[in-house]
Structures are given as C-alpha cells and as structure tokens.
Design goal:
The protein is mainly α. 59% of the residues lie in helices and 3% in strands.
C-alpha cells in the first residue's frame, strides 16, 4: 500500500492515513478481503509513530471498514460502494464545518456561495 503523509497539512496524520485507506478502497486499489500492512510495518513505511497508525486502524474499525484480530493483520470488510458512502459522509462533515466557521466569521450565505463557486471552478473546470 502506497501512503503519503503531508507533514505540512493541518489534518492530523491518523486522519490522513484513514482517508488514504478509504480512497484506496474506493478506487479499487484495496478490496474487500485484502489485508492491510501490520501497524509496525506501516509505521515504518510512513515514518509515523506506532500509536498514530494504531489510532487510524481503530478509527477504520470503529467505522466498520476493517476488522482487527489479535496477532493477525487488519482485514478490509467493506466493498468500494460502502467505502464511498463513508467518504461522502466525511466531505459532508467538512462542508458543514466550513459553513459553521463562515457563519461564526460573519460571512453571509451569498458570500459563501461565491467562495464555493470560485473554489468549485478551480477543481471542476469542465463542470
């Protein structure tokens, strides 16, 4: 599994790792029944603390994405459509957080729509 951690991102490392596992499932790079690297191996590969990788795996387990058995590798237990559902939920939470933050900063709905529209055009120029 190829994982890249952005050390400059404000997103915690365990969340970056969790998101990348979800993305790998959604894109078909990981499939239901595949084993994830051991916590120790992934920590070494990514140069992350063991506890950081463990926290990510526990989060994936809590969401029902993987199962972790003692003295065994973590196993993916969902297919890409279920992983996509979790990814969409994450995006929805992020958008909601942005809206709350904008409201707290006094940005009105019209201004926020303009901000979203400009950002949308940057990433979805063909839409």
């Amino acid at each position: 599994m190829n994982v890249t951690i952005n050390r400059r991102s404000k997103t915690p490392y365990y969340q970056q790792l969790t998101q990348q596992v979800l993305l790998a499932i959604v894109t078909g790079n990981l499939n239901k029944g595949d084993h994830l690297p051991s916590i120790r191996n992934l920590a070494a590969q990514t140069n992350l603390n063991l506890h950081t990788v463990h926290k990510s795996y526990k989060e994936l387990q809590r969401k029902g994405i993987i199962t972790i058995k003692p003295h065994s590798a973590a196993l993916i237990i969902v297919d890409s459509s279920k992983a996509m559902h979790f990814s969409i939920q994450q995006v929805e939470k992020g958008v909601e957080q942005i809206m709350v933050e904008a409201n707290n900063l006094g940005i009105n709905g019209f201004q926020l729509k303009q901000i979203f529209h400009e950002s949308f055009r940057k990433y979805y120029a063909d839409s």
